[in-house]
Amino acid sequence: MVDDSRMIRGLARRIMEGFGYAVAEAENGEEALGKCRAAMPGVILLDWNMPVMSGIEFLAALRGLDAASQAKVVFCTTVSDEAAVRSGIEAGADSYVLKPFNEQTLRIALERVGEA
Question: Which of 16, 35, 59, 112 gets the highest tally of CB atoms within 10 A of its CB?
Fold first, then answer.
């Protein structure tokens, strides 16, 4: 879970652990990229607006890594305009969920990417 909000990371952790996932957290894209280089996760829940490295910047860097094709990326963000959603998918995101999300919304997003 990559988000600058501790509250959102905690919510996502509880939901994802309830689905049976082991969860690692990062508060920005740069920190997350370092963790992905060390051990690529199967699913990444990604915020759009973060300090240090935005979600789009992180996604571009992630997709440049060899093992990155294995990771499914779900944007979890308040950015909702159609152009932004399209640019997120074109940048390599596999799915998109609007905040505030809940267990059902996240489950649907994970099902769309074959992870639930």
Answer: 59
